[in-house]
Amino acid sequence: MIFLNSKKRLLNSTIVLISGIIIFILGLGTTGLVDETPPLFAAAARAMSESGDWITPKVNGMFRFDKPPLIYWLMGFFYSLPKNEIWDSFGTLSARLPSALGSLFLMLMIGDTLFCWPQKSDRQFLTPIVASLAFALSPLIIIWSRTAVSDALLTGTLGISLLLFWRRMASENNDQCISAWVFLGFAILTKGPVAFVLALLTITSFLFSQKNWKPLLCKINPKKGFLITILISVPWYILELIKEGKPFWDNFFGYHNFQRYTSVVNNHAEPFWFFLYIMILASLPFTPFLYHGIFKAIKNLLKSSKESCNVTETLNTYSLCWLTSVLIFFSLSATKLPSYWLPAIPAAAILISNSFINLKNSSKSYLYLWFFNILILFGVSMAFFFSNNWLSSINDPEMPNLASELISSGIIFKAKLFFSSFTILSLILFSLKSKYILLYLQILLLIGQSFLMFPIRKLADTSRQLPLRHISKLILDIREGRETLAMIGIRKPSLHYYSRQIVFYEPNTEVGLINLSDRLNTDRRKNYEDQPDFEYKTLLVVIDEYSSRGKQWSKINHQKLGKFGIYNLWRIQKSDLNKYSKFLVNSGYKSDWKNRKVEKF
User: Fold this and answer.
1) What 3-state class would DSSP assign to 65?
2) pLDDT digits over 118-152, tens only?
3) Global pTM?
4) What is the DSSP string of 533-545?
5) Are strands 567-573 and 559-564 parallel, antiparallel or unpaired?
6) I need a surface site. Which of 5, 148, 423, 489 has the fewest CB within 10 A?
């Protein structure tokens, strides 16, 4: 019997693994980096790999204290592998793998947890697969797991840690609780103290809901475990404080943690209920099942408060505490971003599987839920059938021909075909009253996301990033005497990543022109791979088509060296730039770059 269960467990994990590879890994390095944040992460990680400084992240000659180092270390590890420039020509596979692997391992952990601890009334082989796919097919997880930022890695490390904590509490053996605290340390090294706060809120609220909370607390061994987490996560913070001191303290703890939570940063102000809206989007197209799963979990929680229950059947209660902790914590934050919801999606996936379990024996709920779900699918289908009404409203200055390119590429037609087929199949399965309709549709969505997402990513890369790769190559070919490089107007960190040069970014305003002139004379920036000659007579300027029409820039004499997409490459005499800058200063304009955080994206 043990052998048979082991074989079934292995088969279950294999199915989940193959599904995860399709969603997260396939085609991961076939497109360039997406501006604006991913190139900053990738550039910092590559700099660590090539410079040998694995302590302090640096980008474009500046410190980057936005995030702790684990994401940079993992990216840097892949950049350091032999022949990286051959098997990862864009540098994107190395940068994206930490995010993809974090989500893949968490997906496996979700499936394995539900297989080993099936919840009440469920002894099915399929429920772990449903839960894993509910996590992996979330629109937010699909996007962020293939993006070179730290959000998916935080979700992976924190999610694995929280599941390991519950597994330890649900287990009957007397093993030491070590791995959960190790992964919590990794989560803190990924995005800072927020990981510990979310874990503390989740575990505390869960223990509060259990009558026998003291033995459960003892099982996770908080004193010893907390020491393990500190030993893993704290040394880097101490080393960085010793090395960089006040700038690190003010930037990381002051700005990126305290100020982000207590005040609005980068205009990311949203209403208190913002994450209720994001919760709906994050679970599409199966959002009704999330709410049904939440409702069932609340009923179980109320029932367990009156009578004792087996801790092995409390995973849904634990997931409810997990989701609620993320919801409350980030709803109270002044700065709100959709990516903040990612740590709650594993809990949402488990609650969706809870709905899957309960729907097998509930015909009335089955009817209502599928009615709403089919309405959602029908609405999406109609949106693509009437795409002409909204395609014309797309106004992206970086992709001025996006609407026509979407039509000519066949993406709109494929979307119409897929979602109409998806809706029709849903109606057929619903009419047949299939118990496994949710799983069947997840499998179809798994196939469909590969069918649709690859051409969408390719189109976006061709329109937005290919021009920047071309212009970066041209810069490397024609650069004279270590000329300085500037980018005016639309700011793209990927220009620094692809060109490997120090780039001065400024807006296309009069003040931006004065700033550039002033910075070239005083802001003598350099890094391990580029040391510009600030005394050289000319500089290179990448300027977008819209900015080049501005009177302050069009009046400066320039040599046109090339154009790719909306970006022009100019060579400008520094004397001409300084001359016009003095004219603007005499006209009443003043530089402001010393009084603001320059090049904050």
Assistant:
1) coil
2) 877 666 788 899 999 999 999 999 999 999 999 99
3) 0.91
4) -TTSSEEEEEEEH
5) antiparallel
6) 5
